[in-house]
Amino acid sequence: MKVAAYIQETPAKMHQVVDKSTSLFQEVKQAAFDRIILTGSGSSFHAALQVKPLLQRLLKIEIEALYPFQVTSETFAGSHHTTLLIGLSQGGSSYSTYRAMLTAKEHNVKIASMAGAEQVLIDELADYVLTVFCGEEKAGPKTKGFTTTKLNLMLFGLHVALERKHITQEDFNKQLTLIDQAIAKFDHVYQTAEVWVKANQETLAAASDLRVVGTADLYGDTLESALKMLETLRTPVTGYEFEEFIHGIYNAINENSTLIIFNSGKEERVSKLIEVLSDWTSQVFVITNQQVTKWENSIYLPIDENNPYDMLFLVIPIQLICALVPELKGINPAIPKDRQFHQKLNSKKL
Fold first, then answer.
1. How far apart are the first and last CA of the chain?
2. pLDDT digits (tens, 9 = 90+) for 293-303
3. Residues in domain SIS (predicted)?
4. I want to staple 239 with a disulfide (CB 3.0 to 4.6 A). Which of 83, 127, 212, 228 is the partner?
């Protein structure tokens, strides 16, 4: 199954995630915890990092997003918190996430698993199994799984916030309406992104030095975009938060550089950065929900920055780059470079 076909399943799987959420979070929402650690690798970590600020606003407690290697005995030493650790793994087979969960369990921490499949490795350690009901995704790069994992985390936050009376039932219902409104936009976003990618695919296929820049509110999505393109285009790609980029990274940009810049309207200096960099290289691509027509190579998506579920779709153009452009390079993006890699490195239970 091609990567694009998995992307197209996103709206149906989002509806399924919403429909399952009431029963899925019934037990965990009643648990006592005043600190959450979200841990996972790759796309799972990026999903956690992207949703973390929203969870903090909803739950009003300490929340950390950590790579599995950062979860050590010292993470829990001397802590006065009652911690819930949520291990995320799209396939549920990551040994590094499993080891992080095991470390937490050894310190009497409550454990939840959040995988895109049922009855998987990380579920074995979980007190609460919080499956992302997105269906199987056999392609190496995860697309619908990334989007639905973020949505599952958001719904977790909403259900816990409602249980703890941080929001009212009316507030909760309004969020469900916003989710439905966002899902209804998917087809238009997808079609707009597909046209844009096909118009620029030759230039993107030729890119040998690619940078992704996004503001702090899109940091998880920025890192995910870099990872996805690196996986599928198989050329060096790096992603940077806006402030980090302007504090030195810009020095490496020249006429051979290709940049993809997210502009969500949160930072007014992004427009100036685009202007400056466009004098250095003609390969500056902008993904934005701002109605600005002066930027060449830009794509405008009708996404409401005040609807966090709309914002889930800002990465759709990147996902379509990953689905379509590698084929121009003779690469099947659904198939990893080495199908035996995880067996060789003993990094996943397969």
1. 19
2. 677 889 999 99
3. 24-172
4. 212
